[in-house]
Write a structure and sequence with these properties.
Helix content is 80%, strand content 0%. The chain is built from four helices and no strands. It starts with a helix and ends with a helix.
Length: 136
């Protein structure tokens, strides 16, 4: 499926917007985790790491997919978008294993939560940004 210039431009804009706000949400969630020590907030922050890396790879994939066909890829480069989806799936699995590891460790050894109210505000703000971005 060939995309026209307007479609490509709008996709790049959406990806760049997602990337920029992804970094903002990542910073907010990691700060909330730093304040609270909450495994739930850590889980949310790990998802943001996956999002930012995944969007970065999606930018590359979109750029590569619109490159013209060449000697090695006579039908073009569009199939890299499938690889991009698989790559993000792999990142999700890595984040899941990390979250399970930290959660089990904390379940066994315990943890004291601190600054829950401040961490909740940062997480709520990041969630609102995510909602607005999702509606876009």
């Amino acid at each position: 499926m060939k995309l026209n210039e307007k479609d490509i431009s709008s996709k790049f804009f959406a990806i760049k917007l997602s990337f920029a706000f992804g970094f903002l949400m990542l910073a907010m969630k990691w700060y909330a985790f730093y304040l609270t020590g909450s495994s739930a907030i850590l889980s949310d922050a790990a998802e943001s790491v996956v999002h930012v890396i995944g969007v970065g790879f999606a930018v590359f994939s979109l750029w590569y997919s619109i490159q013209p066909a060449d000697q090695r890829h006579t039908y073009g480069h569009e199939k890299i978008t499938y690889f991009s989806a698989g790559f993000e799936g792999g990142l999700i699995m890595l984040a899941a294993f990390y979250i399970i590891y930290v959660s089990v460790k904390r379940l066994i050894f315990g943890i004291e939560l601190t600054n829950i109210d401040q961490g909740t505000y940062f997480t709520l703000a990041a969630s609102i940004i995510n909602l607005i971005l999702g509606l876009f």
